[in-house]
Specification:
Number of strands: 5
Shape: rod-shaped
Helix content: 40-55%
Strand content: 15-25%
Order of helices and strands: HHHEEEEE
Number of domains: 2
Radius of gyration: 26 Å
């Protein structure tokens, strides 16, 4: 099968998948395949076609796609580690005050304090559900959890 036909099939399949997925990944790979197809049409050797495909795909995926997704408001932000903890529920293991305390958060014991910026600053008794409002170093700042 001629390389031009293979690149055309890859481009068409990828662009067709993009219609279903809509995250710009397959569109960029399809454009890269079309670019490789153009190089095949120009008579480039197979190694150069593959290089054209790889460069276009990498530039598109890592250079073009992220800012386009941000511009369209489609970028997904994933919070990890400490950034993912605010809003999490925990349970007090000891009385938690504005100075000290202990909670069970995601199966681990954490030092905790009542968040002074929150609406309540009273001590929170043992065995009470709390919500993490923020993290300060290795200490979770919490407020009592109120079920809406």
């Amino acid at each position: 099968m001629a390389p031009l036909l293979i690149w055309a099939i890859i481009a068409i399949v990828c662009i067709g998948l993009e219609v279903l997925i809509t995250d710009l990944t397959f569109l960029i790979v399809g454009i890269a395949a079309a670019g490789a197809g153009v190089s095949a049409l120009a008579g480039a050797p197979l190694w150069l076609q593959i290089l054209v495909f790889a460069v276009l795909a990498l530039v598109g995926l890592f250079g073009v796609r992220p800012p386009v997704l941000r511009r369209l408001g489609l970028a997904k932000e994933f919070k990890t580690n400490v950034d993912a903890l605010p809003g999490s529920r925990a349970r007090t293991l000891d009385v938690v005050t504005v100075e000290a305390g202990l909670i069970r958060l995601n199966g681990q014991s954490w030092s905790a304090r009542v968040d002074r910026d929150g609406p309540l600053t009273d001590p929170i008794p043992t065995d009470v559900d709390v919500v993490v409002t923020r993290i300060d170093g290795a200490t979770a700042l919490v407020q009592p959890f109120h079920n809406p």
